[in-house]
Design brief:
The chain is α/β, with parallel strands linked by helices. The chain folds into two domains: about 240 residues, Type I PLP-dependent aspartate aminotransferase-like (Major domain) (Aspartate Aminotransferase, domain 2, 3-Layer(aba) Sandwich), CATH 3.40.640.10; about 120 residues, Alpha-Beta Complex (Aspartate Aminotransferase, domain 1), CATH 3.90.1150.10. The protein is about 35% helix and about 15% strand. The protein has a seven-stranded mixed beta sheet, with helices on both faces. The longest helix is centred in the last third of the chain and has 20 residues. The protein is globular. Bound molecules: pyridoxal-5'-phosphate. The site of pyridoxal-5'-phosphate has 14 residues, from helix 3.
Amino acid sequence: MSIGDGTRAVRAGLPEPVKHEPTLPGPVFAAHFHLPGEPTGPYTYGRDENPTWTHLERAISELEAPGEAVETITFASGMAAISAVAFSQLRAGDAVVLPDDGYQALPLLRERLETYGIEVRTAPTGGDSQLRVLDGAKLLWIETPSNPGLDVCDVRRLVAEAHARGALVAVDNTLATPLGQRPLELGADFSVASDTKGMTGHGDILLGHVTCADPELAAGVRRWRKVVGAIPGPMEAWLAHRSLATLQLRSERQCASALLLAQALKERTDVTGLRYPGLPDDPSFPIASRQMRRFGSVVSFVLPDKDTAERFLEGLSLVEEATSFGSVRSTAERRGRWGGDAVPEGFVRFSVGAEDPEDLIADVLRALDEAA
Ligand code: PLP
């Protein structure tokens, strides 16, 4: 039976109904499970498995690859998920290709990988430039749309080239969520995300996941989680599962409002460098419209200078000045304040929430007028 995203989201990962049991069983708090005799699974020790993770992991698998046999492994954060893929696959002497305009902790990962004797090459996301440095690499790491610049690359093309040269491909799908883009369907070996963002959408938990179709790759990632112990707490896992039920509703509203905001910003002369992959004249649009089903809740733009951007952020009344993105409450920040991204001082990353779009856009336009 073919079902829509909303139906899938509300039902994802629910166990078979059991009389007098809740629809979504509550979090299981257990360091160990009763285990007489031979130590067989599924539940033995709390660092290896937990029933609350099982439900969440099934739910994420259904969203990442409806109807396909894939495995999801959840983690304590997005960085734990990213590290699990990198460190479970790469060995001393291997080469990996990272984007040079991706999430700002990737340079920290780079530093660590290099310490372990792994060669790290970087190239921008736009123009599929990572292809230029792919020869001989073991793993290609893609982040599309990229954070915070919102460039997009052609996942199918990069995967085809990488696989032809024997490289595995991981896609950081944080910004799109599986309702916006399905990396495994585009051919990637790993779909990885920080579920701290749009996936859970309330700005109240940190979580991450890795989904892959190949059981051997999944086993490597799972083993890494056991070794490092970067496991999700049962409460976080349960909250995440509960939040997934509204993923389609949230995405629908947030993506639609992001497009409206981008269109409103396009009209302003004080806004330059506007990026939103869903704007038909955005450089990312031709590829984004082929491989994405929704364009995300983040809009990026540049104000004339640091002071104007700071006045704008202070002047907003419905938007919290905070990092992260994907929450039902709009947030925005001047990205240059961290020093890690190659962006102008007036660069603003704006995460559109679930407020009424008219209210949000009125607030933004007023704050821009006052900041000018
Ligand atoms: N990937 C992307 C694209 C991100 O934006 C972030 C965090 O901002 C991460 C990964 C890391 O996720 P976490 O903060 O959950 O560790």
